[in-house]
Amino acid sequence: MQNLEKYRHLKLKTGAILASDETIDLEAIELAPGESTGPRRHPDSDLVVLFYEGRGTVRTGDRSFAFGGLRQAYAPAGVTFEITNTGPTPLKIAYGLCPNGPTEVADVHPPKIQSGGVTMLGITQFDRFPDSGLVRGGMFFLEPGQEASYHSHDGAPEVFVFLQGQCDSTTEDEMVHVGPGDVIYVAPEMKHRLLNTGTDRLVVWLTVTPNVTPSHTFYEQQPDGLYKRITQRLDGKTSLPPSR
Fold first, then answer.
1. Is the dihedral of CA 59, 33, 205, 17 positive or negative?
2. For residue 197, what are the contacts with CB-CB under 8 A and spacing of at least 6?
3. What's 104-129 look like in SS3?
4. pLDDT tens across 109-149, in order?
5. Residue boundaries of the structural domains of the chain
6. Which fold has domain 13-121?
7. Spelled out in words, what is the top-level CATH class assigned to the domain 131-229?
8. Which pTM was predicted?
9. Is 50 helix (H, G, I), strand (E, B) or coil?
10. 243/156 Cα distance (integer angstroms)
């Protein structure tokens, strides 16, 4: 049985709330053919989006970026943008605000692209969001048999959206097998790891909010089987005792 205090296992489908806390709001939405978000901005939140089905454009200022298939994008807080479905089928999007904050509707686009603008990213390489204190992440890969080390993040949840391959995702002492279309939310401070159990490359889109320092907390297994933290805390809080 899943422990919802440690993680949530969800499906990437329209209308699903994939993560919602003070650090991130990540939802699966869609735009109908010809539909647009209209010009909008998030004054206090960085925007991260994964376009996982369909075709569209992202406009910012005097520039328009066309895309099709799997793509991702990043916009820093305060940038005005507009997403439009230019294809014949629904444009499906994982739409994330980091942190969870308000949306402002703009009357018009700025006459020129704003400083920072929208960054369009691919999904075939380690394409990551530009450096920000609000969010870290982007594409992550594991080859067959490869494992990501057991770790956690101080004060920051992590969300994984699985796009290709098969994986055993372990959070503390709970394991779930996941594949394309699965989403895992891991709460702050919770130890977790991924193991590619398939024969194909594991392709994952992820977010960590906020972008804490150090970015990863690592552990050392003790003779009694428990794991003890070996990364120093920089936030002054008390470390959790050894656990599974």
1. positive
2. 166, 167, 168, 177
3. EECCCCCCCCCCCCCEEECCCCCCEC
4. 777 766 678 999 999 888 999 999 999 999 999 999 999 98
5. 13-121, 131-229
6. Jelly Rolls (2.60.120)
7. mainly beta
8. 0.93
9. strand
10. 19
